[in-house]
Amino acid sequence: TIKVIMDTDPGIDDAAAITMAINDPEIDLQLITTVAGNVTVDKTTINALKLVRFFNADIPVASGAKLPLIKHFEDAARIHGESGMPGYDFPTDLPKPINKSAVEALRDAILASDEKITLVPTGSYTNIALLFSEYPEVKDNIERIVAMGGSLGMGNMTSAAEFNVFTDPHAAQIVYNAGVPIVMVGLDITMKALLTHDSIEKLPTLNETGKMLHDIIINDGDNSDAGIAMHDVNTIFYLLHPEAITTKAMWIDVQTDGPAIGETVGDIRGAYHDGKTNADVCVDIDSAAFNKWFLEEVTAIK
Ligand code: BDR
Ligand code: CA
């Protein structure tokens, strides 16, 4: 099994990613930390707790950064709804977040682990940047970071920037320069592996988890005829099925200023960084395999 910690901002696609991470037997989910992003951190924390409660999972949730390091905060409620996870009536008797900040909880969980941790951020990287700045010793016990965010030359927030990196570009630049191996799971694959309407319509026929995911996914504001992007779920798919995704090693820099703020610039030719690399960038994905796997994962739940 893979020991995983998710740092997340649920969020519709985050909710689906958390669903897979909680339930897949190959993943040993140790901790969920939350960050401001799609909606405020108070809401993303409640949404994480709703999912933990829905699955009666014994997974601690720690609440994290309320704001990006430097940039002003803009949410994505226009895509994810006011609550961040609309459309389904979750149980209301929710567990509480643990009594530690996300950064403290991350430090403790990473240092206590007998195996190296795989960190999976599906929101902006504020908590992780703070963690690396305050407790750099954790880096030695991190296997790698498999992060949703970024792209090579396209954006979904501005024409240059993807939302998670745009939200806290300074944090992203710290994380990409931290010396920890990173897999960049960006728009290059997440806009390709859309969950088709065919797949979405099958979800409620599978089980209550499928109904829950269906009922929230259909509220995603970023809906096209071809389907709905499940951006964050691609991180979990990559962990379990790397053979379905093509990666290319390169150096990633993050623009922290100007009109391209939040852009992840890939040194594809190796000319700027002399061939050195800091990331494996996901460049292609088998979309049919992603859809098939998504439905199989849900079918296996309850
Ligand atoms: C990312 O932005 C958020 O709105 C989604 O949850 C995902 O993490 C996609 O750009
Ligand atoms: Ca997210």
TrEMBL record:
Domain Inosine/uridine-preferring nucleoside hydrolase per the UniProt entry, residue ranges: 4-291
Membrane-spanning residues: none
SUPFAM superfamilies in the record: Nucleoside hydrolase (SSF53590)
GO biological process: purine nucleoside catabolic process
Presence of keyword 4Fe-4S: no
Database matches in InterPro entries: Inosine/uridine_hydrolase_dom, IUNH, Ribo_hydro-like
Keyword Hydrolase assigned: yes
GO cellular component: a single term: cytosol
Any one GO molecular function term: purine nucleosidase activity
Gene3D superfamilies the record matches: Ribonucleoside hydrolase-like
Pfam entry (one): IU_nuc_hydro
Entry keyword set: Glycosidase, Hydrolase
Protein name in UniProt: Ribonucleoside hydrolase RihC
Organism, as annotated: Secundilactobacillus similis DSM 23365 = JCM 2765
